[in-house]
Amino acid sequence: MGFDNHLPTRRELLVGSGALFAWSQMPRLARAEGRDPRLLVVVLRGALDGLGAVAPVGDPDWISLRGDRALVLDGKPPALPLDAFFALNPAMPNLHRLYKTGKAAIVHATATPYRERSHFDGQDVLESGFTRPGRTGSGWLNRALVALESGGRVDPRGSRALGIGSVTPLVVRGSAPVMTWVPQKLLPASEDTQSRLLDLYRHTDPKLATVLQARMKLASLGGAPGSGDPMSDDPTLMPPGIGRVRAYFAEAAGTAARYLAKADGPRVGAMGFVGWDTHIAEGAASGQLYNLLGALDGAFAAIETNMGEAWRETVVAVVTEFGRTARINGTQGTDHGTGTVAFLVGGALAGGRVIADWPGLKPAQLFEDRDLKPTTDLRAVLKGLLRDHLRVEEKVLAEAVFPGSADVKAMDGLVG
Amino acid sequence: MSNSAKAEAVLALHRFGMGPRPGSIAAVGSDPRGALIAELDRPLALAAADGLPNSAKAYRTVADANARRAARAKQAQQQARKQQTAATPAMSEDQIQAPTQNQEKDAAEKAAKQAADAVPDPGRPIYLQEAKLRMEAALAAEIGFAERLVWFWSNHFCISANKIQSMSGAYEREAVRAHALGRFVDLLLAAEGHPAMLFYLDNLNSMGANSIAGINRSAGLNENIAREIMELHTLGVRTGYTQDDVISFANVLTGWTLVPPGADPQHGGEFVFNPRLHEPGGQTVLGKRYEQEDDEQGRAVLRDLAAHPATATHVATKLARHFVADEPPPILIEQIAKRFRDTEGDLKQVAVAMVSSDEAWRGPPTKLKRPTEWGIGMIRATGITVIDPGRYAAGLELLGEALWRPSAPKGYPDDEASWIDGIGRRLDVANNFAERISGTVDPQVIIEDVFASEIAPEVKQAVGRAETRQQALALLFMSSDFQRR
Predict the structure, then answer these.
(1) What average pLDDT does the segment B214-238 reach?
(2) For an interface test with A, which of B62, B127, B225, B407 has the most A Cβ atoms less than 10 Å from its Cβ?
């Protein structure tokens, strides 16, 4: 009996996606320094196996931990060496190239403050920026925009947020207004119908009016410049396949990059990719995880290409709600865990290194004798990026963006 | 009927039913609570389902087609290789440009793919037939309260057709519809013991480390289903269970699997307890010891989870949030939870408790309908009762709520913040639908006859001033009278 590898359909990917863009003049302080920074946050939903993505090949306990499922330098295909200790999943040659040229860094054994193992609570903590789930209905990226705005550093027209997909993810939500962009398939209603509906909403339902107005404003920008249409073939229920997943990752990330690259476009965005919950037949070296990481690698290439000149001022942060069990489970997969990796790529990075306070893999060194122990607080990484790239104030980061994180020091030197 | 009675009937249809359709306001009459409760006594089974395969049969049909596809592909590949080998020596030696290994491989793979594609996939037609049946049941219901409850429980105990398309519709009929107005414990046992759920939550090959198969195959446990049952289906997250409880419960559920379709043409795809996979011995879950030897151990744990007070609260909160408000009144939650506890989870009584509470009827209507609910309401208002399931499935996918395909075991979200940014997409769909029906459906008839004029005056005005009938219909379907409840 064969198991389906549970690859997400394009629609599922879309539902898991979202993008948030602050409007143009947002990072004004950075601009005063002659910079025009871009930040894109990519959330991998489902919990990425950090050890399957970036293997500690120099750890003496690595092989005994994962057995013949361990990525190794002489494997088939061979893992890509990063330094004397770590090696990258062979599905990611683009990331490897970027790393070698100093335009990518990897944070290992990292986690949010969440220590349980519910996807949904874990994503809540990851995206809300709070230390516990269920505390707020807004995301840390949205609050960072609001903080910049209240500091007077933002265009008086106000910031704008943009979501890709039909379900708005938490990291995008908040008081900074959200606009959504969904790939078009149906012919849209005429401008006249939209105006009439907007007028009706203004008189009967202000919330719906706000949403519709944001959509109309986005359409007036001309949509995604030069983008193809990821929904142009029948979007319905074809069997999922990795080819479609690759195409979607590249299309969605590439579209976000095109928006960010525009001279009068947004400067900050976020989006999500689902499908990382590899309980069965994880396949780090050749199966589903390998394929998904390959698709993510393709997304990096699409971002780099579509950013054009703006690439050198770009940071992309790729994060996930938690890691997976250090050991393989009974069905050649991994169950929900704790410590994992974060990928940082972009022309603005001071990269070329794996940032890790390595906890070790002996049973006593694992968190609860099962997960990679987190030794780096993911908030330190995100705070470092927001502070040094966008110039969000440290105090604001500690209080409004990541409440209760005063003792989590922003990581220095991530941006070149 | 007085205007206030009409208004309450419209609220009943939107909030607890599938939305007004021709004649439904009169059918609800002057006692909307009584009408909702009376609907719960009608049979929920779908007579039209008689012609559809049960879940095991559907699964076998797809498995058989997959096996045929693999065989055809293999044959074609072998054939293509043979032809290439035969063709090469026939060329004269000096003009030879031997096909590279890659070219040979590509040609063989192409032939294999063509041969495989020639075998039709029966999974999609089964899915669409099931979708049509479910959709038309919602269109045919006088009020639709019972159908809404089926939808609610189906989302609570969701599976994904992306992983197990063949069984997705039959799962809902067999596990959910059959028990949606019965006892929660029976619904729970039916859902967790259903092959579709065991497949979806990765339990088929989960085995105890000390089971026969576990020892022979050096394989072991998968925690997925145990965690999601406690977190999502019963107790709710952060209610006190621990990682150890998850592991013990996962051990309890080892051996819950299905009959492999290739091995048994009669019973393939049915539930089976396989003792070879089962972790021997007793287990402790939530402080209680379970010593049973077989799948009775799992059923005992599930019965206790169903009776746990946290489950009553979790279920009551979700019901109130789905039907009444994103932040439902705590009194309402407690009223529903109490009835759940008092009746040992009699779901019909739980539903009665909800609609009997004044708290459930308070306005203003702030809930944003989910896309499926909004879409069905739009179609009902036009009086259409037969649909094209392919178009319907595509529409729901565009709106972000593809039928039986949530992206995670938590199911589709139920709050405004998750859906409100999709309103522009709804406009595209409404506009498209309005275009198709504008020749036959008059918006004034919907307002006056179907809604008994219980529509905001601004909407009536906008509809009256519209340039075309299509525009009038699109504005009507997009109005908050259609979007909110």
Answers:
(1) 94
(2) B407
